[in-house]
Amino acid sequence: MIRRLKVREHSSGRAGITRLIVGGMHGREYEVSSKILDKIKPNPSEGRVIVVPNVNISGRRYVSTTNEDYIKSPAGRVYLSIFERYKPDVVVELHIFNSKSYKNLVSPDRIYKRGVPRLMPYRSDLPIEDQILHGGPPPFVKDRFKEHASYITLEIHEKYGKEAEKTLLFILNSVINSNSVKEIREKLKERYRESMEKAGRLLRDYLSRAD
After folding, report:
1. H/E element, 152
2. Residues 6 or more apart from 160 whose CB is under 8 A from it?
3. CATH number for the 2-208 domain, one of 3.10.450, 3.30.300, 3.40.630, 2.40.50?
4. What does the alpha-carbon distance between residue 205 and residue 41 come to, in Å, rounded to a whole number?
5. Distance between CA atoms of 129 and 98, rounded to whole angstroms?
6. What are the pLDDT digits (tens) for 169-207?
7. What is the pTM of this model?
8. Structural domain spans, the chain
9. Quick one: which of 2, 200, 19, 33 has its CA closest to 132?
């Protein structure tokens, strides 16, 4: 299964963390996310960076990663095989949203309706097309990524603007060029402190909830 994937592996040749950056998790997200992922040129000083632009190689129907059935879907099985092979320390999961879905993604009720916290915009003062939303791990891996910024779920608008692209590239390069979860978290907090602190509190509450 993993042989069919387009995997870009960038190794420093030195010991360090493994960062996994994935796109195309479901549906036709790949058509948008690949444009961004093609722009990053990882050259880590330690460890390695694994980029998988399109997890949904089967092209099957959309199944949300917040749905417990995701790991049973073709894309979910591919994703689990990626985890088993690379055993990442840090994951960035890139998704695409549209204007209609925005309200649900940022709604405080998302934790009750979908079982995961609402996503936070790094900057809420921007138009929707220029916002990047972020959150933590989906339910099926939350017990493996309890440290804030070890698993970053990102959402970018399907018709994203220049500001959104600038923000997303900053985030991706912060992950690529950091050598620990703490360093990633501090770089993001330096620029987006309020948003990161709110997301951290949501993550702690999420991890403490009984399944």
Report:
1. strand 151-157
2. 32, 129, 130, 168
3. 3.40.630
4. 35
5. 9
6. 999 999 999 999 999 999 999 999 999 999 999 999 999
7. 0.94
8. 2-208
9. 33
